[in-house]
Amino acid sequence: MSSHDPKDLALIRRMGADSRLAERANEVFVNACRYRYSYNFTWLGRPIIQFPQDIVALQEIIWKVKPDLVIETGVAHGGSLVFSASILELLGGSGRVLGIDIDIRPHNRAAIEAHPLAKRVDLLQGSSIDERIVEQVCAHARGKDKVMVVLDSNHTHAHVAAELRLYSPLVTKGSYLIVCDTVVDDMPADCFPDRPWGPGDSPKTAVREFLKSTERFQIDEEYENKLLLTVCPEGYLKCIA
């Protein structure tokens, strides 16, 4: 249930339907990315590599869902893990964050493990779609009433499609499966000269394929409509069953 006044929701929907504004926002987004804009920010001392709008949205979702476990694929410098841990700390209780990455570099691991919120963070090194890693993730999720998943690792269609298949069953009703960097599909191909993903081979194409095969999830359009600038268009998926 949204906390917005109905009049505010109507205005948010109108903003989301403003195609000219959306075009301008996309232009700002693409140009900002050429300056590595998302690398400008930290959360409690760790680089978070996210747009501020999505940080706010994640805060809203964690505060609303109150998950017992937040599973995040993709660790990088650990800022996102620390972010989730910080909201869980404010909520109280025993909520934990599980970060998975194929390569957790020693200096990043050391910084995460030395952070004041490390008590809420667990790390797994390996591919998020490796059977042995998935088994360990499932063990962490077993018995948890509320589980939330954030996918932010390899952004190719094939990898994200596999993550969606493997991790979506862990998401509990009323919680969220958030797929990052769906915006790749809306950006010029030359934005990713050294990456295996790009328009037509992206998290968004994987999400669209996934939603055709399930009735458990639907796009929560309120987030995309109100954020205006987001790395997750069509990527805020709410579990409804």
Class by alpha and beta content = alpha/beta
The percentage helix is 40-55%
Unreliable residue runs: none
* Count, helices: 9
Query: Beta-strand level of the residues, as a percent range?
Result: 5-15%
Q: Which H/E pattern describes the elements? A: HHEEHEHEHEHEHEHEHE
Mean pLDDT: 96
Q: What's the gyration radius in Å?
A: 17 Å
How many domains is the backbone divided into? 1
Shape: globular
> In the CATH hierarchy, what is the architecture at level 2?
3-Layer(aba) Sandwich
- Main beta-sheet annotation: 7 strands, mixed
CATH class: Alpha Beta
Distance between the termini: 15 Å
Number of strands: 9
CATH superfamily: Vaccinia Virus protein VP39
CATH fold node name: Rossmann fold
Lateral arrangement of strands in the main beta sheet = 5-4-3-6-7-9-8
